[in-house]
Design goal:
The complex is a heterodimer of chains A (391) and B (357).
Chain A (H helix, E strand, L loop, with lengths): L5 E8 L11 H16 L8 E6 L10 H4 L11 E4 L5 H14 L5 E9 L5 H5 L12 H17 L5 H13 L14 H6 L2 E4 L1 E2 L8 E10 H10 L5 E10 L13 H14 L4 H4 L2 E3 L7 H8 L8 H7 L22 H17 L12 E8 L4 E8 L5
Parallel strand pairs in A: 2-3, 2-4, 9-10
Antiparallel strand pairs in A: 1-7, 1-8, 4-7, 5-6, 8-11, 10-11
Helix pairs in contact in A: 3-13, 11-12
Chain B lengths: L1 E3 L9 E13 L1 H14 L2 E5 L5 E2 L15 E5 L2 E10 L12 E8 L6 E5 L12 E6 L10 E6 L2 H5 L11 H7 L24 E13 L2 H11 L3 E5 L6 E2 L5 E2 L4 E2 L2 E5 L2 E10 L12 E8 L6 E5 L12 E6 L12 E6 L7 H4 L4
Antiparallel strand pairs in B: 1-16, 2-11, 3-4, 3-5, 6-7, 6-9, 7-8, 9-10, 12-13, 12-16, 14-15, 17-18, 17-20, 18-19, 20-21
The chains are: A alpha/beta (391), B mainly beta (357).
The structure holds zinc ion.
Zinc ion binds next to loops of chain B.
Chain lengths: 391, 357
């Protein structure tokens, strides 16, 4: 990885919930940001720059968050940047913040992503009719369900893989106090019997609608060193960062296994000198809004050979005690403040290598992946973070 | 059949596109207290800061320091215009139907200025430094528009009315001090709990954006073709793939597509979804099937409905054909095709469409 070393020294999350009507959007972000500052042992004046991200504007109707939220994020007199890459935005926001440190521009950057789905209707925002354009007909699930059906046909996966992922992630969520869904009674039959919304996607195979925010403080090497020497809240070191994108519609596009995702992962592994990601990476937090996408992304990320991602699910490899734990936090399937969902993946991967993931900690986690995707599987953002500095 | 679409310029199609949605905002405690005091007390609150300033309208966080503001204080309902702009022709959403001034008004006791409308009759009656007084609506709902507008203060005495009073309050004190009791409060001594609304915790902030949407050349030709019962695609000069609907360019090759190709109305279902969600604006009975249909001769799937069969009969490889709208129901868009329906032909061989699955 080129540039200066960068460390995650502070992480803050709100409790994710269907409605946080006790706070304004500003108050919601503030909660996460204050927790990240406390974790970093910093105050507002320590921060050099602020980078924020959120979902597409009509999702909650804030079209200039960089203006409205400057007060709440202590950004007066500092650079304030807004990032916008659909559902992957939480990940790409973190990467833009990291680039300011890696490029030697700033030493301490606060990055925050949020969503307050309760103030609007994301389904509506995704399904706006546009004159002359083909009608969207069925919302987000209606877009992704045919790709899942294609994956099942191509891989010959058994029909219950999506159910198994949905159960696994909700069980993991029970170990994460910040998770939105805490379904004590989750079971295979409960998921199987839930309503088929967008066949082959059942209700409990989809993500919830959440309010919430996530924040991180990213810092230059000396600050990471200081956090390491204090010891109580060690840093996570960035080992690799990558983003890729591709158009939604072009002939011969593979929407099931998008080229942009493959290229993004390959770039990540090249930077970190990784040749066997499944054995060299200890865990990953990946963006799985519909349960089948865990199996699909296993192949896209090179954790499994083509057509065999579902076998990792079937074998239990992606469970908390498996050899490649995926979404130990409960993932997007358990908490989905859309604009923040990508950043939560990045933050949770950092918590793992810091040894601070609590009950959902993977033992001796040294290297972890954060992953986000957005749009029609067209934006990808990823990072690798380690307990030790990159070599 | 191929013709060059690039030779003649045809006018592009246009249509209104209105984005409109009523967002429901949680106010949070500080803005909620401001709204509640407007409604219940006809008073304007400012937020106090650790550095001793008063911010009006109140903010949750001090823009200068980033620290949380410390409390709420009544400021005057009169103040000084610090700058202004005259609106000759009020728009439909402006607070006043007659010409007025947008002004920044520094209320007595405040350190920052509030933006609001001033009803002065004419721009000649406006000046920087003039004193104005808030005119409250008799019926108030907990909104900045509970102040209908500001008006020029009548004489020096009137101008001094409504000076700041009282001490610093917390949001909770504001919520419980008005004519309306706090819904969450144990203090129901006013005995009006049934009728009175609680503190203002939510406000509706509708957004409306009105656009004139321009389709562009490729879409215009495609849509005009549909109105003629023709499906017109375009072939990429570089990779030779046929796009439908055409986008005027090939996103893979990054080149313009101009060669027009008329496609048949028959094709193959490559993948699909059975929809059971009764979603916003839906006109079709659930369950219904949306499918990616590879028209014969096209290289990219078209997303459309499959009807005239049971949802569970739809499958990959099924042969389908377009059903056009009746001429009197024709609409400029892909809805010119009502839906696709099975042709009854044998299924397409998987190898013929597997690249599109
Ligand atoms: Zn091409």
């Amino acid at each position: 990885m080129s540039g200066q070393r960068c460390a995650v020294v502070g992480i803050g999350q709100t409790k994710y919930a269907s409605v946080r009507d006790d706070v304004s959007i500003a108050g919601l972000l503030r909660e996460a940001a204050v927790r990240a500052l406390e974790d970093a042992e910093m105050v507002w004046s320590d921060i050099d720059a602020v980078v924020i991200g959120k979902a597409p504007d009509m999702f909650e109707g804030v079209v200039m968050p960089e203006a409205y939220l400057a007060d709440a994020l202590g950004a007066a007199g500092k650079p304030m940047i807004r990032v916008h890459t659909a559902g992957s935005v939480g990940g790409s926001t973190a990467l833009v913040a990291a680039s300011l440190v890696q490029g030697g521009i700033h030493d301490k950057v606060l990055t925050v992503a949020f969503e307050k789905q309760s103030e609007s209707d994301a389904m509506w925002a995704l399904s706006r009719p546009i004159p002359f354009a083909p009608p969207t007909l069925a919302g987000a699930g209606g877009y992704f369900a045919p790709h899942i059906r294609s994956y099942i046909r191509r891989s010959g996966a058994p029909a219950d893989i999506g159910i198994k992922v949905a159960v696994k992630d909700r069980l993991n969520a029970l170990k994460n106090p910040y998770a939105h869904l805490h379904m004590e009674d989750i079971s295979f039959s409960k998921v199987e019997e839930s309503m088929m919304l967008w066949d082959p996607i059942r209700y409990l195979e989809t993500c919830p609608s959440s309010d919430g925010a996530c924040a991180m403080v990213l810092a230059a090497e000396p600050i990471g060193d200081a956090a390491a020497s204090r010891g109580a809240r060690p840093p996570a070191w960035l080992h690799a960062t990558a983003m890729r994108s591709e158009p939604t519609m072009f002939a011969a596009r593979d929407a099931v296994n998008p080229r942009a995702g493959q290229d993004c992962a390959a770039d990540l592994y090249r930077q970190a000198g990784i040749t066997n990601p499944r054995s060299e990476i200890d865990m990953a937090e990946i963006y799985v809004p519909f349960s089948w996408y865990e199996a699909m992304w296993m192949e896209n990320l090179g954790f499994a050979p083509l057509g065999e991602g579902w076998k990792m699910v079937e074998e239990g490899a992606t469970a908390l005690d498996g050899d490649m734990p995926i979404n130990c936090s409960g993932g997007v399937l358990s908490s989905n403040p859309i604009g923040a969902s990508g950043m939560i993946r990045f933050a949770e991967s950092a918590l793992q290598v810091r040894g601070m993931a609590g009950e959902h900690q993977v033992p001796d986690c040294r290297l972890a992946m954060g992953h986000a995707y957005g749009g029609g599987s067209q934006y990808f953002a990823m990072w690798l973070v380690g307990a030790a500095k990159p070599g | 059949m191929s013709t060059s679409a690039g030779e003649t310029r045809v006018p592009v199609m246009e249509a209104p596109n209105v984005l409109e949605f009523p967002f429901s905002r949680s106010t949070g405690p500080v803005i909620g207290a401001f709204m509640t005091a407007l409604r219940d007390e006809a008073k304007i609150l400012g937020a106090t800061t650790a550095t001793g300033k008063v911010i009006v309208p109140p903010l949750e966080y001090d823009p200068e320091t980033g620290e949380a503001t410390t409390g709420l204080v009544d400021v005057g309902s009169s103040g000084v215009v610090t700058t202004w702009a005259w609106v000759r022709e009020p728009g439909p959403k402006h607070p006043l139907a007659k010409p007025f001034a947008w002004a920044l008004i520094k209320l007595d006791g405040a350190d920052t200025a509030l933006v609001h409308a001033v009803d002065a009759g004419s721009p000649d009656a406006m000046s920087t430094g003039m004193r104005v007084t808030a005119h409250f609506k008799p019926e108030r709902e907990g909104h900045i528009r509970d102040i209908e507008c500001f008006v020029p203060s009548s004489g020096s005495a009137g101008g001094e009315s409504g000076t700041p009073s009282g001490g610093v309050r917390t949001p909770e004190e504001v919520f419980s001090s008005g004519t309306a009791p706090n819904e969450g409060s144990a203090d129901a001594s006013t005995g009006q709990a049934d009728e009175a609304p609680g503190p203002v915790r939510k406000i509706s902030t509708p957004i409306e954006l009105v656009y004139r949407f321009t389709a562009g050349r490729a879409t215009s030709r495609f849509v005009r073709g549909l109105l003629d019962f023709k499906i017109l695609g375009q072939r990429c000069p570089s990779c030779t793939k046929v796009y439908v609907p055409p986008r005027g360019s090939c996103a893979k090759c990054g080149v313009a597509t101009e060669e027009e190709v008329e496609l048949p109305t028959t094709g193959t279902v490559t993948t699909f979804c059975v929809v059971n969600v009764p979603f916003y604006g839906q006109k079709i009975k659930i369950p219904y099937v949306t499918a990616t249909i590879l028209l014969d001769g096209a290289d990219i799937g078209l997303f459309h409905l499959i009807q005239e069969c049971e949802a569970d009969e739809v499958h990959m490889g099924m042969r389908v054909e377009a059903v056009w709208q009746e001429p009197e129901n024709m609409v400029p868009g892909l809805e010119a095709i009502q839906h696709f329906r099975p042709t009854g032909e044998p299924d397409a061989d998987y190898d013929t469409y597997k690249e599109h699955v």
